[in-house]
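User: I'm curious whether this sequence folds into something compact or stays loose and floppy. Could you predict its structure so I can see for myself?
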Amino acid sequence: MMKRALWQGLLAGTSGVLVMTLGEKAEQRLAGRPDSHVLARTLERLTGMPEYPGRQPVAVNLAMHAGQGALLGILRSVMSQARFRGPWSSAKFAVVRVTSDQILENATGVGAPPSTWPRRELVIDLLHKSVYAFVTGTVADALAARSGAGPGQRHAALRPGRHSDVGPLPWGR
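Assistant: Here's the prediction. I'll summarize afterward.
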């Protein structure tokens, strides 16, 4: 399951990043909103790369944007493999996506907590991250469905619900 979750998650997360980025670029053109380089600054701080104020590190920004999205896609794939699928699971994953950004950005001192952002900026960010989460979830769910029921579903088939007298499935089932 984990090998499948790895490659499927990277594919799902990359798909989510691609669609989110296309949406961001369209929204930026329509609204006249400039690119943000917070992700680049965050990666520079996390890796100890030199920082050059005034320079817009586009390649570093893209690396963090795509890399973080692809890696988080693995988590969404694990969710799908464990049979946490559908819109409800993608909504939960959207919270994980936003939380991941905020932990990294705030821990490095690059970002500010969302509660301090202008409301319009917060809504736009949440919209883009939700697009990422739902696209990633749709791809991860479709790929996982090809493998059939996950371990949790097979366990539930023994006796629906959560019961202490139904032991775990044997390994390899």
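Summary: The mean pLDDT is 90. The first helix runs from residue 2 to 31.
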